[in-house]
Inverse folding.
């Protein structure tokens, strides 16, 4: 059996099995999911922010790539823009996260690889 024969002879299943899923199995699955649930609100907020950033990046960056090409006439100006975006992100991360951590001195938290 080759890949091409699998693609050409592909069959779709259009009906469901007639026997229902046992209620006990559904209850076990729900209990297992509830044990590892960290909160729907947090997950929704984070995934919403990630979607927002991805959507803006996918919309704004191609327009900026074209505008930079028109302004500079340099085809690699898109990479220059991405280099700038990376540096802005690194500086932003430093000022918001890393700078708050005390890593040296008497007030630094003790670091250990063991819990």
């Amino acid at each position: 059996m080759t890949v091409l024969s699998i693609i050409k002879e592909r069959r779709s299943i259009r009906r469901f099995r007639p026997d229902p899923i046992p209620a006990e199995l559904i209850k076990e699955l729900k209990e297992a999911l509830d044990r590892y649930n960290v909160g729907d609100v947090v997950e929704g907020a984070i995934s919403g922010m990630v979607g927002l950033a991805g959507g803006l990046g996918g919309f704004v960056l191609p327009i900026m790539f074209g505008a930079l090409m028109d302004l500079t006439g340099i085809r690699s100006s898109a990479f220059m823009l991405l280099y700038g975006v990376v540096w802005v992100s690194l500086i932003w991360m430093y000022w918001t996260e890393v700078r708050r951590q005390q890593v040296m001195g008497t007030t630094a938290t003790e670091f250990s690889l063991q819990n």
Summary: The chain has a mean pLDDT of 79. The CA atoms of residues 31 and 37 lie 10 Å apart.
